[in-house]
């Protein structure tokens, strides 16, 4: 009838399943990892309900043995949005939609520009120029961040070459994600 009742039922089911079963040959202990979704809370067709229960079970398995997890439609929306953003970023990288802007680094004692910081922007075809906060947090823990990092390094090095040819010798600072630093081929 309600979420509390479902939770009590599942906890009771797991407790009963975990009691040893004694047979002539041996004692057998079972555990159950359970994924749950409820209708009408998860208002989808029967095939999708089964898929959602499976997704919840996978989350439960990731947590350890003998757990139950409920499918969370809001969490699923966030996961799907992240996946879509990652797919869009891969496509944007292939299409050359990223650009670096350079913020000067100034030595205030000498009142002289001593370098620049590379700041990535996404020239999104529909949303315009996006700052890094609009897309980097979505990919912090994904391998596409490494691909983007290599692109930034390559572009920054190319810019340094162009500045050198123009008579400017400026260092450029770039942001490197922790997982990129740990990449075996980073150096």
Q: Key features?
A:
two-stranded antiparallel ribbon; four-stranded mixed β-sheet; 6 helices; 187 residues; 8 strands; alpha/beta
Question: How is the topology of this model organized?
Answer:
Blueprint: H1 3-18, E1 21-22, E2 27-28, E3 34-36, H2 46-63, E4 68-70, H3 73-95, E5 98-107, E6 112-124, E7 128-130, H4 136-139, H5 144-165, E8 171-173, H6 178-181
Question: Which stretches are low in confidence, meaning pLDDT under 50 for 5 or more residues running?
Answer: none
Looking at the structure, what is the overall shape?
elongated
- Which structural class should the secondary elements be placed in? alpha/beta
- Supply the number of helical segments: 6
Beta fraction of the residues?
A: 15-25%
**Alpha-carbon distance between the termini?**
59 Å
What letter string, H or E per element, gives the SSE order? HEEEHEHEEEHHEH
Percent range of helical residues: 40-55%
Strand tally is 8
Provide the gyration radius in Å.
Answer: 26 Å
Mean pLDDT: 89
Q: How would a textbook summarize the main sheet?
A: 4 strands, mixed
